[in-house]
């Protein structure tokens, strides 16, 4: 009887051990993003990365790739909580950042000293990738505010013929980094004025601010802010008489939330609103083999959200995360994964700085997009450059259409050659 019990226990132990060995090992990618207040951008980024992973059947070296939603609600302290959770999770490989720059600027030192592999497909704050150490753990494939300000100012001056630019900036490290860049971009040309606003600025306050700007010596506004406040400023401008309205040239933060439905009527009534984007539009996906394959695969993953891909809200979130996912997979292909996650993170960080060959993405084909950071190589962890940034506008269906690059004279929402 004792022999039977011993044999039974042995068989059970072998069975359980076998099952444990066959259970898929997991690599988690934490997505620290504002799913509450800027759901459009969070969802677009999620869809892009998930689509890239689906191309390899969510598997790499026997590990299952999983994206884990972490809603920071636009709160830097919640982002910090997610970062600490990541560090204590033996299955967490990397963190995919979200829309907001402040948490990654505020906690940049902790992120790098703790070895948090942070991949940025949206947050544009200039300092994020420029931690002054060769062991830099933050990689970005997005708009970069150390360059974005030049694109915004150039468009205002050359395309809209603005001579007196007023800066309307959110009062955060993101807004302040943009002010610094745009002052440099303007050179000797004086700025007509700078107005700061806080998060949660409502329509009544926005209307007062807009009226004050319009009555000053200003012919256009360069805006840096997000969708919740942006919609109020746009609608406040649209409430003025046609002859009093000023064009608004915006950072892309407005595209990250439920913005277009709230301003549709204002735009349809002729208000000029242009905003920065990277230079690929989902309107063109049918004309590019990879883009069509990626969108078709994304439709299978998210059939309800991608009925009309051209109308996807926050499309650059999808584009950037998809391309970043492809770079991540290339890096994973250059290392040997183990159960030591700290080692995996370190190996992958090094691999991203030395990616082999070329990686085809939606925006472009990437050749060594990242390198070792140094004080003389400030853009080492920036996959995109000035030539990858364009200006865009909303069409009547809510989709985003790129404006022609170069000096154009813009009438209303249309660009024409001089």
TrEMBL record:
It comes from the Bacteria. Belongs to the leucine-binding protein family. CDD domains: PBP1_ABC_ligand_binding-like. Residues 1-20 form the signal peptide. This is Leucine-binding protein domain-containing protein. PANTHER family: LEUCINE-SPECIFIC-BINDING PROTEIN (PTHR30483). Residues 41-248 form the Leucine-binding protein domain. Keywords: Signal. InterPro entries: BCAA_transport, Leu-bd, Peripla_BP_I.
């Amino acid at each position: 009887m004792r022999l039977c019990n011993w044999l039974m226990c042995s068989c059970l132990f072998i069975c359980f051990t076998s099952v444990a060995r066959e259970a898929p090992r997991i690599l988690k990618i934490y997505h620290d993003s504002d799913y509450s207040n800027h759901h459009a951008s969070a969802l677009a980024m999620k869809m892009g990365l998930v689509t890239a992973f689906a191309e390899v059947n969510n598997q790499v070296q026997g590990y299952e790739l999983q994206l884990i939603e972490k809603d920071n609600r636009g709160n830097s302290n919640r982002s910090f909580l997610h970062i600490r959770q990541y560090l204590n999770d033996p299955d967490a490989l990397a963190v995919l950042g979200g829309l907001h720059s402040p948490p990654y600027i505020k906690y940049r030192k902790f992120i790098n000293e703790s070895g948090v592999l942070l991949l940025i497909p949206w947050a544009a704050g200039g300092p994020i990738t420029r931690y002054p150490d060769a062991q830099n753990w933050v990689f970005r494939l997005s708009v970069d505010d150390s360059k974005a300000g030049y694109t915004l100012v150039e468009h205002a001056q050359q395309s809209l013929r603005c001579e007196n630019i007023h800066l309307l900036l959110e009062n955060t490290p993101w807004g302040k980094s943009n002010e610094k860049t745009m002052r440099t971009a303007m050179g000797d040309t004086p700025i007509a004025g700078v107005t700061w606003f806080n998060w949660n600025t409502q329509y009544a306050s926005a209307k007062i601010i807009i009226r004050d700007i319009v009555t000053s010596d200003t012919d256009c506004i360069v805006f840096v802010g997000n969708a919740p406040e942006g919609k109020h400023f746009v609608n406040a401008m649209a409430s003025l008489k046609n002859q009093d309205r000023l064009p608004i040239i915006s950072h892309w933060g407005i595209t990250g939330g439920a913005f277009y439905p709230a301003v549709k009527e204002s735009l349809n009534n002729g208000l000029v609103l242009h905003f920065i984007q990277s230079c690929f539009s989902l309107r063109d996906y049918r004309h590019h083999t990879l883009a069509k394959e990626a969108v078709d695969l994304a439709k299978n993953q998210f059939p309800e959200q991608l009925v009309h891909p051209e109308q996807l809200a926050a499309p650059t979130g999808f584009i950037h995360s998809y391309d970043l996912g492809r770079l991540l997979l290339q890096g994973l292909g250059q290392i040997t994964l183990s159960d030591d996650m700290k080692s995996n993170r370190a190996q992958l960080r090094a691999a991203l700085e030395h990616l082999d060959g070329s990686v085809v993405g939606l925006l472009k084909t990437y050749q060594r997009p990242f390198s070792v950071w140094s004080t003389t190589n400030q853009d080492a962890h920036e996959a995109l450059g000035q030539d990858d940034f364009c200006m865009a506008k909303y069409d009547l269906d809510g989709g985003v259409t790129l404006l022609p690059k170069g000096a154009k004279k813009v009438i209303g929402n249309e660009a024409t050659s001089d």
